[in-house]
Amino acid sequence: MTPPRIPLESSTPASVLYLPTHRQLELEFRSGQIYRYLDVPPQAYRDLLAAPSKGICFNSNIRS
Questions:
Q1: Which H or E run includes 19?
Q2: Which residues contact 58 (CB under 8 A, 6 or more apart)?
Q3: How far from 47 is each of 1, 17, 52, CA to CA, in Å?
Q4: Which pLDDT belongs to residue 3?
Q5: How many Å apart are CA 20 and CA 53, to the nearest integer?
Q6: Looking at residue 24, what is its pLDDT?
Q7: How far apart are CA 35 and CA 45, in angstroms?
């Protein structure tokens, strides 16, 4: 069973889903597009959830 997406308060990413056993992160953007990122460390996911700016955190720590 897939865990639910977590809504994000952000102007760019709308929600996030993290699968720790696969180190896979999915971001749904306000445009409706969903992107999957592989080999994302759990700390990067936790940092994203805690960041005051989800977009900046995503661009700095996950996107590249």
A1: strand 13-19
A2: 12, 13, 27, 48
A3: 24, 14, 10
A4: 85
A5: 22
A6: 97
A7: 14
pTM: 0.88
CA-wise closest residue to 55 among 18, 24, 12: 12
Q: Are residues 8 and 16 in contact, defined by beta-carbon separation less than 8 angstroms? A: yes
Q: Which residue has the tokens 């720590």?
A: 61
Over residues 21-62, the pLDDT tens digits come to 999 999 999 999 999 999 999 999 999 999 999 999 999 988
Which DSSP letter does residue 51 get? -
Q: CA-to-CA distance for 55 and 34, rounded, in angstroms?
A: 15
pLDDT of 64 higher than 80: no
